[in-house]
């Protein structure tokens, strides 16, 4: 097993290099880079009658060559594409992601500032999804074809069909001072007076603020996991070893949780890391915008719009690395759940 882990860790390096290389050249060659955006901003200020901006002075009749050279040097575009690429690889090898073009802060500091919001949304929504969807899937499998199974299937399909942002708006209208009740706050992950609260009050304030965003993120995650749990259990219930266990006098619940559960949950539980990472990285953008939460989704969106290359590539590097490690963790989780799995016998 340790040989398998070592080989998988070694494969992370070329995979990470390939992904970063592909994205680097795609983003760098995209039109409307930081230099073009700065020039556009300067020209806009020229029309407004201003004569300086960001430490640069210029003439109203146009942008001179010297100033253009300074702007290119500011964003690193005084170097060739190949030089910029190799410089990025050297820095990223040391986890040096540089400074943001626009936020006057290092990329690492920006990511660390935004992580608590996205981590809160990803963790609690994933936990809620698993705590409800797995028992629901088991119950549906046991009652397959019965009224409970049919009614919950309809509810699940309807919930899955509702877009996340639409459900978030519905919750705001109903419970955040829209047109009916005002039970929950509309913005932020904590209140303005959070620092002055006691520990118990801080916990209460925190959960009070994240309730609606977490519910919004969770609504679309029930369908797939519930049906996956149900189908996994149904497949195991009809196997020969289940009939044998029942014939020996074991109760249905004993067979269900002692024998079926481990086999049926192998696929479901092993997907926890990837599910959490998916919600953590990509699932919260619209929710962050709707509930005014300053997280990683919003940071990534803003950096792409403004062509903030250090933030784009720094975030991409970190999350790609996390994604590759999560794939390895999924495999190892298979081994933890079912000790019968041996990687040494899988060709490693």
From TrEMBL:
SUPFAM superfamilies per the UniProt record, alphabetical: MetI-like (SSF161098)
Protein localization: Cell membrane
Keyword Glycoprotein (UniProt): no
Chief location category: membrane
Domain of life, source organism: Bacteria
Transmembrane feature ranges: 9-30, 115-138, 150-176, 206-228, 264-291, 311-333
Family, similarity comment: Belongs to the binding-protein-dependent transport system permease family.
Protein name: ABC transporter permease subunit
Species for this entry: Helicobacter apodemus
